[in-house]
Design goal:
By secondary structure, this protein is α/β, with parallel strands linked by helices. The chain is built from 15 helices and 4 strands.
């Protein structure tokens, strides 16, 4: 234990000796949390929509007024013909264009159904589908109000209840996921540099001739990034509810063991990269090579169910996949311990594999 403690103290000094390095370990992840929380949103707002109104009646004016009053739309750009509409969409001056036919008001006045045309920019397919939903909902609500009272009662309606995220705020979705992703990147960054830094500074040979055993060296090198990752995770646990209003409804006693196990998997990957690298530059490139698939395959940006079947199988090796489920569940759903453990045991298996691979490679390099 004395040798392990001495190795831990030595590694902590190596990480914290430089005041700038101490600042980099905490400040950038915190800044990233604030920036990414606002940047990574799937909300479609401030949309410019075109209008080709060939009816110019009271009903069409009412529809346009409702669209203009929606918080999702910014400007309504009027067009006189289809040529102007096509050019505006080609140049991406508008995201969509609403086309109202000549008989729109006349058909509604006779009590007949009327149709609308909506031209969408297919180059931005996801945003176009959302804009289509906005316009369809506004037009549907107006059409329901135009029905006679008896038909309105017959048509009825639907009551939507959004469990776990009543306001459908993307902060509530992105913040828990960012806790997982930013802690993993910072943990990889610190761990991947440890052995490579020893090689560049020429102190790796001193470790080889020291009385320290391989497991003692590895433990000493793993503890500092583990402490830093746990510290960052604790800060995020406070920042998310206080500054962003994202509730933490689960148990802290479940959050920290899950974070601890996740950090072990990340540290194992980082140690493997560091043992494989000869220079810190190689370690940085290796960290980047591991971090990108770790994030993309986690299900944060796109649902795993939407990926090809063979790629869904690959995601089972991604520790971020399981930890994001745990963090989102603890933040929003008060996830019970049984469900947390169902996601925790794969992290334990991955941690055993990554740490064992790192230890084997480190021992082979020492020999």
């Amino acid at each position: 234990m004395q040798r392990i403690w001495a190795m831990i103290v030595k590694e902590m000094w190596a990480v914290l000796r430089d005041p700038k390095a101490r600042l980099v370990l905490v400040a950038p992840p915190l800044i990233q949390l604030f920036i990414f929380a606002y940047a990574t949103t799937l909300d479609v707002k401030h949309v410019d929509i075109g209008l080709l109104d060939r009816s110019s009646g009271a009903h069409s004016s009412e529809l346009v007024s409702r669209i203009a009053g929606s918080p999702y739309f910014r400007h309504i750009v009027p067009f006189e013909n289809f040529g102007q509409l096509r050019k505006a969409i080609d140049l991406q001056k508008v995201h969509a264009a609403l086309v109202i036919d000549e008989d729109f008001d006349a058909r509604l006045a006779r009590g007949e159904p009327a149709t609308l045309g909506l031209v969408l920019d297919g180059r931005r397919s996801n945003a176009s589908q959302i804009v289509n939903g906005y316009v369809s909902r506004i037009a549907g609500e107006m059409g329901l109000e135009l029905l006679p009272p008896r038909m309105q009662a017959a048509a009825g309606g639907s009551t939507v209840t959004n469990w776990f995220n009543p306001t459908l705020s993307y902060f509530w979705f992105t913040l828990p996921s960012l806790v997982a992703l930013i802690t993993s990147v910072s943990g990889l960054a610190v761990t991947s540099q440890s052995v490579a830094r020893e090689r560049e500074l020429g102190t790796f040979d001193q470790l080889m001739v020291s009385p320290l055993r391989v497991h003692e060296i590895l433990i000493g090198k793993m503890v500092p990034p583990l402490i830093i990752g746990m510290l960052n995770g604790s800060i995020y646990l406070i920042v998310a509810p206080v500054f962003f209003g994202v509730p933490f409804t689960g148990s802290v006693l479940l959050f920290f063991p899950a974070l601890f196990m996740y950090m072990l998997t990340v540290i194992g990957i980082g140690m493997f990269i560091s043992a494989l690298s000869q220079t810190q530059q190689q370690a940085f490139l290796g960290m980047f090579l591991a971090a990108v698939p770790l994030i993309i395959l986690s299900g944060y940006a796109t649902p795993i169910d939407n990926m090809p079947g063979w790629l869904q199988i690959v995601t089972y090796a991604d520790p971020a996949r399981y930890f994001i489920v745990i963090v989102q569940g603890l933040f929003l759903k008060a996830m019970p311990a049984s469900v947390v453990f169902s996601q925790l045991w794969p992290l334990f298996v991955i941690a055993c594999i990554t740490l064992s691979a790192a230890a084997w490679l480190f021992r082979a390099r020492m020999e």
